[in-house]
Amino acid sequence: MTVETKPATSARRADGSAGDADYGRIGQGYASFRQPEPAIAALIEAALGPARAILNVGAGAGSYEPRGRDVTAVEPSASMRAQRPADIAVAIDATAEKLPFGDGAFDASMTTFSVHQWQDLDAGLREMRRVTRGPVAILSCDPALVEAFWLSDYAPQVLATEARRYPSLDRMATVLGGEVEIVPVPIPLACVDGFNEAYYGRPESFLDPRARSACSAWSFVSDDDNAVSIERLRQDLESGVWDARHGALRSRPSFDGSLRLLIARP
Ligand SMILES: C[S@@+](CC[C@H](N)C(=O)[O-])C[C@H]1O[C@@H](n2cnc3c(N)ncnc32)[C@H](O)[C@@H]1O
């Protein structure tokens, strides 16, 4: 089993990736599998309130960036920046840990599926708080709940990696300070954002290597170990074992997993 948690050095990779995942290697097809899910986007929009000037950190291909507002995006990976649609802001090449903006430059800020990758979480959160007058909204997962997902029966190293990478919500709340609200985020059955739990009722999706590439945790486990995991899942799908255990999920309209929206108001 090969599990790596953080890069050995703080150097950025060839494509500029500044977190623990190398988007130069795994990021090319990201936007095809990681589209913003409208139900989740609505929760983020509500958290941002009436803010006009919004900062999106670790913005990737632009998922969840509200339209019709003044959005500034920060994204260190060139391959992720290249996947941003033409009608949204060009992302600035910078990192969470050192935001190139003045104090209180934004009405609100957001970051989605990114904090677990930062090299210095506390520094990044302090920077978001520094440059933001109003709410800071963070879409992330509760590490205490990640391994409860059925995928752990097949790919335990992948979910153990996720559980290790996601920072505790309490820690983020403490660093950000102010009034903190943590909202559970239900995942709809047809969720169009392909993170692991999005496939709770569509297990065949994991058989597609492109879907796995769009979830960085798989890239920390060796190809051989992942092949064994996927083969076991494929066999259980073929034999009906998966359906005997979890088949009710195929028609469950939504799933309460580990996804959380943390909103810190000053
Ligand atoms: C899973 S992607 C999420 C992208 C997008 N926010 C979304 O929801 O689809 C994680 C993103 O965080 C970025 N990232 C990693 N480390 C970072 C850091 N230290 N500062 C800013 N962004 C970082 C990665 O380059 C990547 O684009």
Describe the structure.
By secondary structure, the chain is α/β, with parallel strands linked by helices. It has one domain (23-265): Rossmann fold (3-Layer(aba) Sandwich). It has ten helices and eight strands. The protein has helices at residues 23-26, 30-33, 38-48, 78-81, 121-131, 156-165, 169-176, 209-213, 223-239, 241-246; strands spanning 53-57, 70-74, 108-112, 136-141, 179-184, 187-188, 254-255, 259-265. The strands form two sheets. Strands 2-1-3-4-8-5 form a six-stranded mixed β-sheet, sandwiched between helices. The chain has a two-stranded antiparallel ribbon with strand order 6-7. Mean pLDDT is 94; it is low at 1-9. Bound molecules: S-adenosylmethionine.
Could you name the key traits of this structure?
single chain, 266 residues, alpha/beta, Rossmann fold, 30% helix, globular, binds S-adenosylmethionine
How are the secondary structure elements laid out?
Elements: H1 23-26, H2 30-33, H3 38-48, E1 53-57, E2 70-74, H4 78-81, E3 108-112, H5 121-131, E4 136-141, H6 156-165, H7 169-176, E5 179-184, E6 187-188, H8 209-213, H9 223-239, H10 241-246, E7 254-255, E8 259-265
Main β-sheet, spatial strand arrangement: 2-1-3-4-8-5
CATH class type: Alpha Beta
Radius of gyration, taken over Cα atoms and rounded to an integer in Å = 18 Å
At the fourth CATH level, what is the homologous superfamily? Vaccinia Virus protein VP39
Query: Distance between the terminal alpha carbons, to the nearest Å?
Result: 43 Å
